C-alpha cells in the first residue's frame, strides 16, 4: 500500500514533499483548470516553501516531457497492440490521451520535480 514516508505518496497525491501532511495545491482536483497550477506558498504543517527559488517549477517542463512520453506509450500499447486499431486511429488516440490527461501530467511533473529536491522528513512537523 501507498504510505506516507514514500516519495511515491507525495508524487501521486501532490502532498508536501517534506511532511506529506497536506496537498501543495489550493484545489486538489486538477480538472478545475482555473486552479490547475495554483499552489500554496508554504506548507502549513512544516513551513516548507514549495517554490525554492523564482521560476523553480519551469524545470518541471523537462519532467513533463518524460511523463508525456509515458502516457503516449501507454496509449499506443492499449490502442494499437491490445485493441488493434489502425495506425491513424492509434495516433488520434495518443493525441486525445495527451489532451485529456494534460492537467494530470502537469501536476505529476511538478510533484516529481519537487521530490527530486526535497526528502521526506518525519521530524519536520513539531508537535
Ligand atoms: Zn509540509
Feature tags:
binds zinc ion; single chain; 127 residues; mainly alpha
Describe this structure in words.
- By secondary structure, this protein is mainly α.
- It is 48% helix and 0% strand.
- The protein contains four helices and no strands.
- It has helices at residues 7-13, 60-83, 87-100, 102-117.
- The longest helix has 24 residues, at 60-83.
- It is elongated and about 55 Å long.
- The two termini are 26 Å apart.
- Zinc ion binds next to loops.
- Zinc ion (ZN) binds next to loops.
Bound molecules: zinc ion
**Tally of individual helices:** 4
Strand content: under 5%
pLDDT < 50 stretches: none
Secondary-structure element pattern, one letter each? HHHH
C-alpha end-to-end distance = 26 Å
Approximate shape: elongated
What is the helix content? 40-55%
Rg for CA atoms: 17 Å
Average pLDDT, rounded to a whole number, is 94
- The number of E-state strands comes to 0
Structural class: mainly alpha
Main sheet attributes: strand count, strand direction, barrel closure: none
Describe this structure in a few short sentences.
This protein has 127 residues and is an all-alpha fold. It contains four helices and no strands. Helix content is 48%, strand content 0%.
How are the SSEs ordered, and which strands pair?
Blueprint: H1 7-13, H2 60-83, H3 87-100, H4 102-117
The chain binds zinc ion (ZN).
Zinc ion binds next to loops.
Amino acid at each position: 500500500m501507498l504510505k506516507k514516508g514514500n516519495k511515491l505518496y507525495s508524487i501521486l497525491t501532490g502532498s508536501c514533499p517534506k511532511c506529506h501532511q497536506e496537498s501543495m495545491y489550493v484545489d486538489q482536483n486538477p480538472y478545475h483548470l482555473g486552479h490547475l497550477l495554483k499552489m500554496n506558498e508554504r506548507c502549513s504543517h512544516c513551513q516548507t516553501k514549495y517554490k525554492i527559488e523564482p521560476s523553480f517549477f519551469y524545470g518541471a517542463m523537462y519532467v513533463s516531457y518524460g511523463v508525456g512520453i509515458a502516457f503516449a506509450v501507454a496509449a499506443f500499447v492499449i490502442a494499437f497492440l491490445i485493441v488493434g486499431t489502425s495506425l491513424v486511429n492509434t495516433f488520434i488516440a495518443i493525441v486525445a490521451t495527451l489532451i485529456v490527461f494534460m492537467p494530470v501530467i502537469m501536476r505529476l511533473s511538478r510533484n516529481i520535480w519537487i521530490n527530486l529536491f526535497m526528502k521526506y522528513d518525519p521530524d519536520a512537523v513539531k508537535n
